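#help-structures
NK: newbie question, is this the right format to request a structure? protein is RNase H type-1 domain-containing protein
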Amino acid sequence: MWAIWTSRNKALHGSSIQDGKNTATFAKDYVDKVRVHSAKPHQHATKSPAPFSAAVHSSNVPDLPAATYCRIVQDPTAATSSSFAPNDHVSWHPPPHSGVKINVDAAVNSVSKQLEIGAIVRNHHGQVLAALSMPAQGDFRSDEMEAKALFHSLNWALQHQIRITHIETDALRVFQALTSSSRDLSCFSDLISDVRCLLSFFPKAFISHVKKKR
């Protein structure tokens, strides 16, 4: 069901339409990999658990745009905190111990006039665990851009099995729409509904709003 839902949303939000047989093949391969992984004996039980389970390499994820840059750090402890420390001029606060925070943003490329989506995942030390940069098709308003960026970023994190615990956005209207208990009636309500559906895969995730630095 998840593979079908993902394929549907990719088509809905501007990506190429995937053949049903390819979706079925991907789902079967994914389930087989999970079963093989579950059958293996757990090694190094005395070690602390990794911030997220072993990431699927980007080449195994279907229909990512060709220009997508995807970086997964398998061993975040190999990188020093200073190497990946957040910019001193940007207001960023680390998640609690063992937490994993994702920051998402969207902007229009001034040259290509194309929407660019970016996401960065960091642990409580400020070490980068994963990063994403990808284009998106379509002409959107500011709020729609940010909601679309959040949708694609969470979908990417889900496919790579990244256990997000904290989500930070500078889009106030998107934040309010996602955290409101009332029904969303905005012009991008369908997109908000899709984001909420994705959030159900991250039941422990906490969403916060941060003001954008000017």
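mod (FA): yep, format's fine, and the tokens are attached above. Strands lie at 69-72, 100-108, 115-123, 128-136, 166-169, 206-209.
NK: thank you!
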